[in-house]
Design a protein that fits this description.
Chain lengths: ~725, ~150
Amino acid sequence: MSDERVPIAAPPAAAPLPSGGRALRRRDFIKLLGGGIIVLFNVDLLDLAAQEVRTNGYPADFNAYLRIGNNGRVTVYSGKIEMGQGVVTSLAQMAADELDVSVESIDMVMGDTDLCPFDRGTYGSMSTRFFGPALRAAAAEARAVLVALAAEQLKRPKEALAVEAGVVFVASDPKVRVTYGQLAQGQKLVRTLDGKAVAKPLSRFKVMGKPHRRLDARAKVTGKALYAGDVRLPGMLYARLLRPPAHGATLKGVDTSAAAKAPGVVVVSQDGMVAVLHADPEAAESALRLVKADWEVPPPAFDDETVFAHLLEAGGEGEEGEKRGDLAAGEKAASSLFDGTYEDGYGAHAAMETHTALAHLANGKMTVWSSTQTPFPDQQAIAAAVGLPKEQVRVVTPFVGGGFGGKSGARHQALEAARLAKATGRPVQVCFTREEEFFLDTFRPAAVVKIRSGVDGSGKICLWDYHVWAAGSRSAEQFYDVPNSVIRTYGRWGGGTPKMHLFATGPWRAPGANVNVFARESQVDVMAAKLKADPLEFRLANTSDKRMRSVLEAAAKRFGWKKAAAPSGRGVGVACGIDAGTYVALMAEVKVDAATGKLRVTRIVCAQEMGIVINPDGATMQMEGCLMMGLGYTLSEEVRFQGGKILTRNFDTYEIPRFSAMPAVETVLVKNDELSPQGGGEPAIVPVGAVVANALFDLTGARLHRMPFTPARVREALAALRKASS
Amino acid sequence: MGESISFRLNGKPVQLDVDGDRTLLWVLRTDLGLTGTKYGCGESYCGACTVVVGKEAVRSCQLPVRAVRGKDVTTIEGLERDGRLHPLQEAFADAGGLQCGFCTPGMIMAAYALLLKTPKPSRDQILARMEGNLCRCAAHHRIVTAIEQASAKA
Ligand code: FES
Ligand code: FES
């Protein structure tokens, strides 16, 4: 349709590679690449990917590549996707810097299974951490190849040459020059990165380390950026599907005859999937209301209040993780012992873009445009669902309207669109309504943490006995100098553990880490308060981890932290954590309306140390986003349910942070140029629950043990406190 | 069912033969091929579908297309003039008022309506006006900065 609307990347110069599925030998793969100068490289840690790569028959030594074409443009091909985290820009910055070209001369081709080599998916703050170094090395390698070619052509030694903006020239005589485009002309030079290319030292960064306007900004502010739901094909139908009233319900009977009579409606009823389709999505919606279905709903096993008791029971024996010393010795050494229980409900991803896909079967090949974090695994699942060989399925990922883990392996909509496209012979779009989105989301699981801890006579933590149900141990790892400590996990956050959950669960921005840090940092605060110690000082006295100390101190300096034991009545708190290799310390100030119980965070300071910072502005933006989003899980977000019935249906009952919740935010990036870049998309969200809990305690003396801290729970805690003191 | 409905869309006349009960959102996104206006909730809670009718920001998911008969409708696609971004678009891009970009058209249109009526809004006015627009990527701070920048330039 309107061709000025833009997909995620410029159209690639080369024809699609049929590499998406076929068991390709490396030689064959290379044959399929177009001309130019090509560097193959590996983005993910090989040991993680190797098994999957082997079983899928992809070349095992690379999963991304870059090409310098004969127009001098640089194209980076990767199965990773852009969902707002800004990788398109930060990766282009890295490639540009290493190659000495402008950021604008880089094209990113991402998330297309026909054009990019296999990739497991975009999650876990991995793009910058693992992709970054690999891409930089590949770009450095490409530059070395280009300079060597230039030396030959210009008949000068390499050392005499310099590069600027994609032009290689003789440093002492800039008129003697040749462009990257000219050098790539007629070449087909393929290099595989062996991991030895030396990337630029920090001191020579020109683009990296400096703010850069997002490359996708223009498309996004003009409405031209294409998302999966914006793709239009002639003759396409919009599908609405029959959903059960509750998870676990069984369909006893269905009558679609009335819907089928509506003009223009196509009904598909196939292996339990009942769909009505129409060229107008609203007409499909009206027709769906004409479908009569008879469901049998099992009695509710538990609900959002009784879930915690259920988890403790369903968790079984658990599994021992990180262990140090001996718990009995720790208990003996303790002068005070503390038992704490912490809880968190189910959370929804609630990306503004609901799960959407458009599928089209033409000439035996199924193309699916999908909002996904995992195009390659989706490709395989779609192939299986429609009975096509994998190479006959192409998944294209346009811009993704937010993921946060919720579009990682959650692919109902893509499978349904593909099955419906096959059944009807027409292109079919499935775009979840907001209600479907809340029903079919892979929720962040409800979780429970129980901690028994102890401090000795000198104020040192000597015991840490940590038990976590349904959240896994991410960010629970111990960085306090506790000699006797153990972490025990019961069930993980993912599926895997039978009978724990009534509906699908999955990763949510920093899966499991939020509740683990909430529990640990609350418990640490409880101990500090008992000792009448300043919470910051207590933390510093108990950790020798240099990176942690540096972020705590940086936060304190910016915040203007004044020493006092809690509760001081000021309403200030501190909490810290580690996630994705990055260290974060938060300090916050809160106010509470005692009558309504409404908690407001007025100020947050965030100090983060994440190794080398490639795009400080991008990193700051991610931190701000984390803090704001963190206020949601901390203050209001909780999925309400009764058995398999999801009561949360839309944003009226699932409250995500709004403008009025904006605290004053100050961010500090603590320098550490010794360390390669670490994850930035998730760490700052991790301590938000804890810092607010601790600040509320400092303000009122009330300690909240269950997130989110809704007005009702705050009121209750304040009332309990009054009762206890009267 | 079908009725003839004419209005001005981004400065140009349009005439449609449609069921007037259909919502403006889906008529824009399907019949008219303008997909910049987004569906986020369908029930007036998120503001992703915000367009401007006359000088008012309106949730197009709640508006029957019949209601814009004879009116002036502006969508995100109508802000750019001769290849030049509107100051608000420029400011959102510069200030980083977007991440995934899905809420962005609705945010910009809500701000556009605000500035039409109140060219120099206070911070509180901005917060109050934008309160009903949701952003899951939590770009709120930058969005406010962008609106302030654009209003300072206007
Ligand atoms: S889609 Fe209209 S307000 Fe959400
Ligand atoms: S930028 Fe993603 S929802 Fe606002």
